Amino acid sequence: QVFTYCIPRYEIMDANDTVQMWIKFPYFVCDCCDDIAFPIYSASTGQQVATITKHWSGCLQEWCSRAQNFSVQFPMDLDVKMKATLVAFAIHIDFLYFEYSK
């Protein structure tokens, strides 16, 4: 995690500790009635290269179940280790923002 004053920002590094991508979080995360996208940008070009999305599952599932639905979209030619890292980061986002202790 990179220090910022307001919005969390994470950098994704390769095995050589070189920043490959960074993730910009939304200003406000509210999981009610809409999908939430977490865009992922290339560190070298600044272009959006992937997206992690938390999908709204409907009132009944969201309120009565602890199940969450995420999707990870990335280019087909992305390195396999980076793909695995993005899937792992989707799980991290779930634990960070959407899992609540009861």
Give a written overview of the molecule.
It is built from two helices and five strands; from the N terminus they run E-E-E-E-H-E-H. It has helices at about 60-65, 80-100, and strands spanning about 10-15, 20-25, 35-40, 50-55, 70-75. The two termini are about 25 Å apart. It has a five-stranded antiparallel beta sheet with strand order 1-2-3-4-5, with helices on one face. With about 100 residues, it is α+β, with helices and mostly antiparallel strands.
Shape: globular
Structural class: alpha+beta
Instruction: Please state roughly what percent of the residues sit in beta strands, choosing from under 5%, 5-15%, 15-25%, 25-35%, 35-45% or over 45%.
Output: 25-35%
Number of strands: 5
Describe, in short, the structure shown.
The chain has 102 residues and is of the alpha+beta class.
Detail the topology: elements first, then pairings.
Blueprint: E1 9-13, E2 19-24, E3 36-42, E4 48-55, H1 59-64, E5 69-73, H2 80-98
Antiparallel strand pairs: 1-2, 2-3, 3-4, 4-5
